[in-house]
Write the structure tokens for this entry.
Amino acid sequence: MNKRLQVFISSTFDDLREERNATIEAILKLKHIPAGMESFTGEREDQLKIINEWIDASDIFLLIIGVRYGTLRKGSEKSYTHLEYEHAVKRRKPMFVCVMSEDMKVRKITKLLSDGKFTSDLLNVNADKLRSFREEATKENRVEFNSIDNLQYQITATLNSMQSNPKYNFIGWIRGDEIVDEKILSNVKAFEKLGINKVYTMPSEKPIKEIIPFVKEFYSIAYVSDRLFEEHRDEFRNAFENGAIIHILVGTKGSDFIKEIDPLEDFQAGDLSPKLDAVERELRQMVRIAKKRVPKDRLGKVEIRSFNTEFRNAVMMYKDKNSELTAHLTVMFAYKRAGHCMMIEFNEGSGAEDCRQYFDRVWELRADTVVYNSDLD
């Protein structure tokens, strides 16, 4: 399947018409999709909102800097081009910046003046802002062009390089008739409905090491989860020190279900009680260290409760600073076949909400089984 990338073109308009047309042509020749705001002829109240939505929907942000800073948005000290750039940076949008060379700028200014489209005074408006913006925007992934042909060459080379770089993992666009397998299409629709973002085969490095330190809420239900807290104790401590709420449900020691795991599933020899104790020990120690390092009013809360239902899977959920819920459902099989387990990641959707409702119900039912509460430590 041929994945086509949507490239948002950001630049001033009247002085860079030729450059924008050349950019659109270069993008189309690569069979990608150019996007821009050519259709906007006057200022509208919702203009920037619509522009930002187009940037969000694009795979790449391409900025062209020429000889003008651009029109200031009403009520702002910044131009539309500058605000578009800042939005793309905020969204961590892959980007590259095409900067007009000094000799081409001289030729461009001469042409604009001779055509009578601009006066010298108009070209020099906000020159200091342009200089500052150029310095801000050209720190990374910058190319310089000295002609229209050279601009097209730079765009072609950079887009090809970015598309082949696996670090970007662009979403892109695919024609509907190129998805020939209806079964796959049906599965995609089901995944979208449930909010499934990824499916991981296990064992694998769970994608939580970089996430945990920044979560605001964290929830876990698993009959044993000692490895999670042993392997990521520093990350959990960082989250707790930054005010995170951490709620943990573990299996009840001595319950029939826990006793039956060994003979029925050959989970591992011996009593599981030490593993359950390890969860409490790790979190208790984490809290004590944090209380010595950080003022109490900055700390979060840790609470552990136990459950005795026959829940052989595991659910881990977290909310980020934007209160967006992500859930990981680990499908557990017998221990000897654990290499074939998988973890499903749900973003906002019915799957994530189902996981949260299940957790909340068990948490409520087990209110009288508190194993540990950091507020009482």
The chain has two domains: 6-164, 189-376.
